[in-house]
Design goal:
The protein is of the alpha/beta class and 321 residues long. 24% of the residues lie in helices and 22% in strands. The chain starts with 10 loop residues before the first helix and ends with a strand.
């Protein structure tokens, strides 16, 4: 370190005053190269999915989010965070498959079934019916990210089968979590008021993130059932909800200040208008078709509406608007 005459700043002092120390790699400021201790140990968040040693200050995260919000607004998009397992795909370790399932897979009796090899295991992977079409459609309205509790190697292999990394702005995996097996939007570089989540598990998310959540019914393909083909239309239901939230948020009023709008509030209104909560898919299990049937008759359907259970007997229930 170079010292100036007494009473003058050291070179360290000058660098420290001129730099805001927005981010660090390997415990050194990326801008001025001072170590974390010399920068005053600022509060940071690790973004290991970008670089293993990257840590970013709160102010810098918010600055990036502001930039991204302008990009989203200019392109009339929101940000969608997607889970992998039981949401977009179902996978199982090959060594845990029964003989019938192994034989069926080897004979390629099913579409969109893949084998993936990791350093410590081999998996068989089944894409959820309609997942590629779903991703194609939502990508016109949303910037897409993946957040999974699976490890990074597994997540990257699955993403390759979903169309590759160019489809997603980021892939966040188990190694990136701030708390063990807990998901948080603190790792997503968009403001929370612009983010929606689709996941089959509510409990893995921080409590403050649950108002962003649309819960999807868990997709389970294994074990296989001989002679039974289930047409899964959950992605269609979720897509209709996402499209409605997007259309209400960007309602065509060019004078609207989108900076003050909140996608979470729009989602609440959409859920209420449908008589649903984000955990409501199970309420539709009595219905034979969840997408194409707009009005149907059921003997008895319980709907959770604003926290209260209402009973409908021999009434027409209007679906999707």
């Amino acid at each position: 370190m170079v010292m100036e005459e007494e009473g003058e700043f050291t070179l360290y002092d000058q660098r420290n005053l001129e730099c805001t120390h927005p981010s660090f790699m390997e415990n050194k400021c990326k801008r001025c190269n001072l170590c974390t201790a010399d920068c005053g140990h600022p509060a940071t968040t690790p973004f290991r999915y970008i670089h293993p040693s990257l840590a970013v200050t709160v102010d810098e995260v918010n600055r990036v989010r502001d930039v991204n919000m302008k990009f989203l607004t200019d392109n009339k998009k929101l940000h969608l965070v997607l889970d992998l397992d039981h949401t977009l795909i179902h996978s199982k370790k090959i060594k845990k498959l029964n003989c019938t399932d192994k034989e069926s897979i080897q004979n390629m009796k099913y579409d969109d079934v893949f084998e993936i090899k990791l350093s410590d295991n081999e998996y068989v992977l089944k894409l959820r019916p309609g997942v590629r079409e779903f991703l194609d459609m939502v990508s016109s309205m949303f910037e897409l990210s993946i957040f999974t509790i699976g490890n990074r190697e597994y997540a990257h292999k699955v993403v390759e089968k979903l169309g590759g990394f160019s489809r997603f702005s980021c892939v966040i995996a188990r190694e990136d979590c701030l708390q063990k097996r807990q998901k948080t939007l603190d790792l997503v570089l968009s403001h929370k008021q612009r983010v929606l989540i689709v996941d089959d598990m509510e409990q893995v998310w921080e409590k403050c993130c649950k108002e962003n959540l649309i819960k999807i019914k868990s997709y389970d393909f294994f074990p296989l059932k001989e002679g039974i083909v289930v047409e899964n239309k959950e992605l269609s239901r979720v897509f209709e909800m996402l499209r409605e939230v997007h259309n209400v948020f960007y309602d065509g009023n060019n004078d609207e200040d989108y900076g003050v709008k909140d996608a979470r509030e729009v989602l609440k209104r959409v859920l209420i208008s449908r008589g649903l909560s984000c955990v409501s898919q199970e309420q539709y299990e009595e219905l034979e078709d969840q997408k194409s049937v707009e009005v149907c008759r059921v003997k008895r359907l319980k709907i959770k509406f604003n926290g209260a259970w209402l009973e409908k007997s021999n009434k027409k229930i209007r679906l999707f608007g």
